[in-house]
Specification:
With about 170 residues, this protein is of the alpha/beta class. The protein has 8 helices and 7 strands, in the order αββααβαβαβαβαβα. Strand 1 and strand 2 form a beta hairpin. Helix 2 crosses helix 3.
Length: about 170
Amino acid sequence: MSVANTSQHLQRLKQAQLVTAVREGQYIRYHLADPAVAQLWLQLRAVAEQQLAEVDRALDAYRTRRHEFEGITAVELQTRLANDEVILLDVRPVVEYEAAHIPGAISLPWTEVAQRQQDLPPDKTIVAYCRGPYCVYADEALADLAQAGWQVARLEEGVLEWREAGYALN
């Protein structure tokens, strides 16, 4: 989306009191107005996924690599992190990582994975996550890593889903 289009959408969400805005110098940072907005989004998404076959087809068209990678659950991830078996990468932009991230995650934006993959240990599975099941960043990062020989897996959940499931964030 263009910046102008995104701005218009955010203004509409602000008018509907679904988001709040805080000016930080020349930037405006938007936040969900209430945790109930996140719950609304997740419920709406779940209904759409359950009721509309088109959602799954659209996701396949958008995330063309989504079936290439092993999936890992939140519970399995926590166990494997505790056992030091995996490296967890948050492949979102740094500003999003700094706002909130899953405990144990390392910030490595997907645009930098190809250049910085040599910094990762070759003997551990690399698990990546991004903004949730509708985000392609993790797929792109994992494709680069898999092509270079790493064992990889994807956490479908993003920070929003993680928090809504009752898990802590950093």
